[in-house]
Amino acid sequence: MTETFEPFNYQIPMVEHLLANDRAALFVSPGKGKTVVTLTALDVLATCGQLKGALIVAPLRVCSITWPAQVARWAHTSWMRVVNLRTAEGLQAWLDGTADIYLINSELLPNRLPLMFPKKKTFVCPVDTLVIDELSLAKNPQSKRFKALHKHLGGITRRWGLTGTPIPNNYLDLWMQVRMLDDGKRLGVKYSGFKDDWFYAADYMGYTYKLVTGAKEQIDRRLADLALVMVGDPSDLPSSSIIDIPATLPPAARKQYKTLEKEMLAEIADGQITAPSAGVLVNKLLQLTSGAVYDEDRNVLPVHTAKLDALRGLLDKHKGEPVLILTAFKHESARIIAAIPEARMFNEMMLGEWQDGRIPVWVADPRSLSHGIDGLQKSCRIAIWCSLTYSHETYVQTNARLIRTGQTAETIIYRIIAPGTIDDAVAEALRDKSDTQTGMLHAVRALQRMTLSKITP
Questions:
Q1: Which among 149, 198, 202, 235 is least surrounded, fewest beta carbons within 10 Å?
Q2: Is the pLDDT of residue 14 over 90?
């Protein structure tokens, strides 16, 4: 069942900006609906007979889950045929020109571009629009993926870029992103020229470059017609970052996971997905990616230490800083407590010790502190989700224990994710801002979409 899209006031200028500019960027904070806004603009163009097709370049998880889900969700976009260029079917649709939206993750570009743009006189590019979702992925001027893509953009006249972090490090990051959209019209065709004109070496080794006086204002003016900027939190809170840390399952655990995933998806393949069936599936798979599972007698069976190893790496990185660790299962908390000598289990009665910095690592179930607990931010700026929740409310409220009034430093929210598993599906389900039950259903549907996006030779 589809929904009717009713844009918020701030989304209307976003749609208008895309429609008014063939070369455009939305520098818009996460959560403001860049995906549905872009789809709405594409729908308007198609209605006017001005859309041939759109190529969407995005991170793997976003390609496999978010864009297909958003197209199917809204009544005004559900007509669009979406294919993934990771699959043989998607590649054939591209060559035949039979889809409206073509999806590809940036990592696959070097592999797919020779197949997408064959050197045949009979080949006709099936798209006239390029959308780079998470444009900041193109910040590296030496990126082989985006340099290779740029060579094929001559016939694609409409190019849009979407990101909430256009300047992840400094203004040097803008050059390649903007060049992907305008071929060097605004910031120059060569990175060396851009750097020489507006930056100076801030150290004698030339590792750090800073803007010369007045350069920021000049660059901003050059981008004024290209980029619509809605970045930043209007509140007085310090900035925050969400960083995903991959934890690759070892081969034996990966095999065990895939077997369980296949069996559980097969059980619901022919029937309607219900909240109970979704809950069982998601929780069992999340247990396995966490590192252990319960058997029928509730005994804990260890499977792997991939996430525990990633956690140790993060704790070493932030040694000397209090860290809040968030877990979904009792066995997960117990294994962390046993493996990390300085870790202690969350107890609200110890809040004073935490605020005084006497507890370096606190392990908690997010459901025990997502509401009503204040004061965690007085000594801590770092949270690590070892296993994600599929409840958007719990997720946001838990993060808000640190991102709140009284926080004096940038907050970092780490999410340890096993790539290509239910972890990816849950992470994307959180974008839908669903309640617990709906979140489970979204996670299962996302997992089903992931299984349809396998790489083909």
A1: 235
A2: yes
Residue type, 326: L
User: 120 falls in which pLDDT band (50, 70, 90)?
Assistant: confident
Strand blocks (E) in 12-142: 23-28, 54-58, 82-84, 101-105, 129-133
Cα distances (Å, whole numbers) of residue 89 to 82, 84, 86, 109, 445: 11, 8, 9, 17, 20
Predicted TM-score (pTM) of the model is 0.70
143 vs 358: CA distance, rounded Å? 44
pLDDT tens figures, 313-343: 999 999 999 999 999 999 999 999 999 999 9
Q: Cβ of 48: how many Cβ atoms within 10 Å?
A: 9
The whole-number average pLDDT for the span 55-62 is: 89
Q: How many angstroms separate the most distant Cα atoms in the chain?
A: 74
Q: How far apart (Å, rounded) are the C-alpha atoms in residues 338 and 300? A: 14
370-387 in b/e form (b: 16+ CB < 10 A) is: beeeeebbbbbbbbbbbb
Q: How is residue 249 written in tokens?
A: 């399952």
| C-beta separation of 205 from 182 below 8 A | no
Which residue has 């640190």 as its token pair? 402
